[in-house]
Amino acid sequence: MKIAYAFRRSTVYPFEAGDGWTLQPEPALTSFLQKVNEIGFDGLELGFEVFGGHEATKESVTELQSRLSGSGAPCVSLRAGGVLCTPIIGEKNRDRLFKSIEIAGWLGVKIVNSALSGGERNKTLGPNEPGRAIQPGSSQLASQQDYEITANTLKEAGKRAAHVGADVTVEVHQHAIADNSESTLKLLEMTESPNVFANPDLGNILWHYDDPEESSEKAIVALAPHSRYWHCKNLQRVNVPEHDRSYFLRVPLPDGDIDYRFAINAMVDAGFDGYLALEGANTGDQISKDARSVQYVRQILAEITDGVAVNPT
User: What domains can you pick out in the chain, each with its CATH number?
Assistant: First the structure.
């Protein structure tokens, strides 16, 4: 199992990032890439916007990849995403997904990850805020047509991905029709593509409703055999039942409510050998926090390899 850096904060002195998911200019970029190597990441997850979005060319993409690879931190997965079953926005996200697959081919990247989440839809359902009892865009509110449209688009995405030697992964995500193990597996079944898999982001299941729809243990055991890429983050949940609300604190992997020792064992037992993509800290000293998470993952993997840990299932 390799570890990718799906960083969520890129503030590096003297630059303060306006968008934490972008790469900084020099000299901050060199400093950042050096730290990525020191921590022990095997590469970066980047969005297609980093490579120029719809204006990206093969020449511009390969030039940036050469720069990253030369620093020991190549782009190893591409982030696309967005709801696919709504008019206008869904069509734009479809085009974004297809362009990301094209860029992945130029990069030689094997994974294009897609979170099928959307924005707020109406005042009745309320805002897209984690920890509420009702969530817009969720599988609970999805129609059969939503699934059919999404599955058809993903099937076409799978065909395009096959042509460039890549796979598409569906991230379990809030405000999306794939927001738990059952809905994600249903969507994969309807898609019927040998190039479309799951990304079992357990953090997003915990982070969704005031009460999680399922336990992390149940979700990872169900999704592990169908996964090709894996977003990992952890949170501490603070429930306020009197108001049907929960609040969440983002923390390094060993410190939150999700048992990643169990989860990593489940993924290894299912034969997963892809990238564990650490969704890094979005506040404070992300370098120090994310280094703790990487050390924790490496320790558990070493225990499994050495035969110290046993599969908790």
Answer: 2-306 (3.20.20.150)
